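Allow me, if you will, to draw on your knowledge of protein folds for a short while. A protein sequence and the structure tokens that stand for its backbone fold form the material at issue. I would ask you to consider whether the tokens describe a fold that such a sequence might reasonably adopt. Thank you for your consideration; the sequence and its tokens are set out here:
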Amino acid sequence: MEKHLTVLAVESSCDETSASVVRDGKEVLSNVIASQIEIHKKYGGVVPEVASRQHMENVIGVMEEAILKSGLTLEEIDVFGVTNGPGLVGALLVGVSTVKSLAYGLGKPFIGVNHIEGHILANAIEHELDFPLICLVVSGGHTHLVLVKDYGEYEVLGRTLDDAAGEAYDKTARILGLGYPGGPKVEALAKEGDPFAIEFPKAYLSKDSLDFSFSGLKSAVINYVHQQEQKNLPYSKADVAAGFQEAVIQILEDKLFLAVKQMPVKTIALAGGVASNGTLRDRLKARAEKEGLRFLYPSPVYCTDNGAMIGVAAYHQYEKRLREKRFSEISDLSLNAYANMPLVAK
């Protein structure tokens, strides 16, 4: 009989508690997500302490449900994976402590996974990856351009110097009174507006820079709304949303294809929570087709935080460390959680 390698992975970096059972780094046997959106809505955003307490309440139940839905038993799990950074450190610690304890008690290996790597490899669930490729990671906490040379081999080409694109979406939603989470609400409202009625600034930093900056755009939106309201002048919230989104997408598109020009590849990918934005996907897909590039993106359930993407990353990390005989990096009980953790170790 063919021997499979099965991973049980936990993701708890922000406001979703998720557990997934993944076989051979590809087949998702289960993917259970307990969202905290309704809890954080009344605060207008994620409250770290509240998130940590919710993870503590949810994590065991979510893991049990993932195992049950997979059709396997806990004893049939070969490897455990867990996000250990970056993210909210209290939230991360819940997942790390739980998985380490379980793996140690069962005598099974475990692997810590970088959250950004998880987002990148979400693309591997439904697509065969051909390397090298460039991945644009866009979420509430991260905006990265990453050269993916192979599984576990990354080079960060550019990243945000201040706010992430998803954070700018949330702040724009707040100033427009749309509520939390902001991304889907801004996207929906933008469809009713004219993206060129209000021209907001776009920060390119320098001609060849692959880094991002969204704080100026966020401030420009806030200032525009405040000025209109202070002067009792009418304005269209739909046009604000559309103008804001056009600025974000234009920046993301231009930087991604500048990266392709600087470092030619045949495949580009999109990942992260903002990858579920249909307008962004359509723009990048059209540009990729025009330039003869293969364009990959995950299904919406794998764009937002989920255990399956962590399971895929844990599988490939485990396999790589076995091949390279880096046994000391497997089941390291000193594994900790880090609010800031670079994708590529310096």
The mean pLDDT is 95. The chain is about 45% helix and 20% strand.
